[in-house]
Queue: 2 jobs
Job 1
Amino acid sequence: MVSFKEEVYEHISAVYQTAVDEIKNVFGLIKEVWPLIFLLLLALTILIWFAKPAPPDKVSMATGTGGSYKILGEKYKAYFEKKGIELKLVETHGSKENLQHLIDRKDPIQAAFVQGGMIAVDNLSGVQSLGSIDYEPVWIFYRRNTFNEGIHVSDRDIAKLRINIGAVGSGTHTQALSILKQNHLNPAAPNLLSMNNSDAVNAIERGDIDAIFLVDGYDSPNVQRLIKNPNIRLVTFIRADAYTRLMPYFEELTVPMGGFDLGNNIPDHPIQLISTTTNLLIDDRLHPAIQILFLEAAKEINGAKSYFSKAGQFPVYMNTEAPLSNEAKFFYEKGTPTLMKYLPFWLAEFLERMFFLLLPFAAFSYPIIKSIPSYRINLAKKQINSIYKELDKFEQNTIQAFEPNRRGEYIEVLNEMERRVLASKAAKLATADCYSLRNNIEFIRNALEKQVIYKGRES
């Protein structure tokens, strides 16, 4: 009776021998069909070369110094960190500088927040939009004691006040100048000041200036600070509709009576505002997966209900100054890619890349793999045909110059041919052709033997 140890040994030996045989078969197959395998490897190499690379693990983004851009940038950074991507925030002086970073093709910054109305420049090549992600109202605050109580102050009423229009080069400054020019006002008037927003907020609270332009989000610390100050009031744009028609990047917003403080009824009348939008712009070379990640971040962070927007309103392509990227078009039409809904970002992105890599490879490789059996048979037949030609030549030469005393030599040549046939792949892959060739060899061998015997008898 075979012991358990011996039985285990037999199984292990059988597994080992099977593995060795299969490995030999594989290497034999590779040796036999190596041109087809080389063609497949060449195709795969070309596909990998042209396929999109893996997304970077670090991305630089221009935001701003203070204000809503900095707050928003920190939220995006936290979102990216959860997805395993480092979002490096670069502080700038605002939208104009942010846009210049993207226009410069040598600049490492690949994404930025930019105000609507700041984008329409002559050289925008290489810059694309992922859409608008928030409202940026134009706020004009003034000191309460500047006008008599009960007067609803409009944008026309503050033209001659000491008013800060933002630091030169800032988004606030640019928007303020555009508004002044639309009203045929002198943008170089001595009553117009150019302090940065933080200094201007301090100045109006001290009473050093009468009014201040701000172009910023509702949650901006500067905006919230002035809204809550009882000595500060907010201008109403009574001609908001006209502004939106003449300056298409503006939208019309409304603060209802009591919209800031119901208990104290602040404001005590509806206020009309005009608002540009915060736009998420990118370098068009930004990896597609990172573009989708930005849009997903915008959907989660900016898509929630806010003071001026409804849930799901942002992101949206509502400012057409920069062309929408192809990835953003797909996102707005189809939504989040299916894999990203259910898998971690890195895994979803990897599987997507592999799918688009292997799909064309499979389409190319299928007919090649399918042709391997035919290729092997044709190769075997080619070997048989080669021996057939050799046999034909041998027969012709023997008939023309037959020498009876070389009978053994002739027979050995035929035997060697038959041995080569038996050792070739044709013996397994083209059995019928193989037997046919052997029969022909045998026929010539028999003919030689008869002829030799006849000659020998004759002699």
Job 2
Amino acid sequence: MKIVMIGSGYVGLVSGACFADFGHDVVCVDKQESKIVALKRGEIPIFEPGLTDLVRSNAAAGRLSFTTDLAGPVGQADAVFIAVGTPSRRGDGFADLSYVYAATREIAQALSGYTVIVTKSTVPVGTGDEVERIIRELRPDAEFAVVSNPEFLREGAAIEDFKRPDRIVIGAEEERARTIMADVYRPLYLNSAPILNTSRRTAELTKYAANAFLATKITFINEMADLCEQVGANVQDVARGMGLDNRIGNKFLHAGPGYGGSCFPKDTLALIKTAQDHGTPARIVETVAAVNDQRKRAMGRKVVAACGGSVRGKTVAVLGLTFKPNTDDMRDAPSLAIVQALQDGGAAIRAYDPEGMEQAKAVLPAGVTYCADAYDCVAQADAAVIVTEWNIFRALDLDRVKSLMAAPVLLDLRNIYRPEQLRAKGFTYVDVGRGLPPDAPAKAINAA
């Protein structure tokens, strides 16, 4: 199959490299010339485990190439994937579809022979209809079909997710397009990957519904963590007790500082706006988004409380900046709100992240000191905060950490350490939703 991937960002590059690894002939197109030049040199603009080797090996084999020229490859393609960004639009929160429609207009002019145009980008319900309308208006003679094929890739595990997916959702309105999409994904038949054939609008909504539900699970367990802190329960045990119920499952039940990243924040907001537009407000999702926004700032207040009620004139070490480990993505990362809250309180910030430092410098407030490693970060700090659960933070030399800090105060917002271990070493240790608050027995008696 000849495949063109419009957009060489996270989704487009991972998808294109994986399709090439299946044996397809893939051309990745991007408007940004510097990115294409770098990709041709084997330089990958994002951090994703295994992606560099995958891109280089398939480019060397001649199955994967990069260009700024859209017209030539599209004219030869069996399938053209649109994998451009759909960020939240300023002002109203709707998904910004300007990049999708701009790509659509260019594709229309280059079509030759029957071609399947596939929206891989996350788009609101009805976007495929508009893509089809634009092409038919510009090229009434063209033979084509528009298909929705949403991505379900986790940053940090994207290649595994693409090659061993839970499901492949294909939203198509005609059988010929479904046949071509089946050929595109035929290599995954060996892994028995389930293919769900739906209408185009159903496929578009499935992506938003899935992300909103996962965001809801995260927000729910975070609220349970707050309750656990007040009643003296352990949120990790609560999560285990819930997760062992097969109807619930144990994934996305890890208490922490709130969700971030490229998908959940913008997709929940886009779903909220779509539902409002159609007169069916998604009240649960509205609450999830509001609670998550508030939680990130609340984590900053948690640090202030652990420092005796004020951080003015104090130094706080922030360990982990990206929204999750194994990525360099800083989009809507909890660290953004936490750092801002601490700076607003008068704290000096030292920060370290294994992969996200350069991206962090572009979005974090001015005045942050970026450090060489975790130990450099905690040096002379009055408190240290684990914000992202990178593996290198899971086995710190705690004695060394304590000796370097001005005060042994450690806030573990990902619950990666055992409270008794840290307290035995003399740390003031604060986690999320575990342990017994000092006044819990009295509260319990009074409640009874």
